[in-house]
Amino acid sequence: QVQLQESGPGLVKPSETLSLTCIVSGGSISSYYWSWLRQPPGKGLEWIGYIYYSGSTNYNPSLKSRLTISVDTSKNQFSLNLSSVTAADTAVYYCAREARGGFDSFDYWGQGTLVTVSS
Amino acid sequence: DIQMTQSPSSLSASVGDRVTITCRASQSISRYLNWYQKKPGKAPKLLIYIVSSLQSGVPSRFSGSGSGTDFTLTISSLQPEDFATYYCQQSYNTPRTFGQGTKVEIK
Known about the structure:
heterodimer; A: mainly beta; 7-stranded mixed sheet; 4-stranded antiparallel sheet; 0% helix; 53% strand; B: mainly beta
């Protein structure tokens, strides 16, 4: 059974960089797309971007200028860096696997981690 | 970006009721439409992918239909554990986008 676990600081100061890591266990990170998503308090779900195990990325244009997603296949994990954060970036952040080839959906998710942007 | 619009935004229903939630895309997304269930404090759970395929382990009372721009999630007989918020999501192109959610509450 594939499991994903997010880790990182729960509090980030405005203008600083939000950094999270997602560790994948129970399966290989290879041959799948791996996404970050978030849900601000009281709001809906927003897709942040994905990375393929080979390193190719696709970012949400609304965040692209501040976003970097990277992968470390040797550690079976991928990471999110979001720079110049503001209070609008306060959200529960999720990592998820996107299955393709007739599935094309987020089939496995991490439990989520709340990140608050505040001084 | 493809806009996904769900209706209603919320509904009240009783155990045993048949519940229908609709999702409309701002352009054709073929059959690239998924449904998720979200409970407070929990990660979203994939219910249905590619319009009508039931994810493994999901009860058969959940079903989906549609194509192009109009889609439907149906719960044939609402159970206590089904009270949650439901989201549709398109995987036709990027950025991936979600509907605003439909909250199913106890009547």
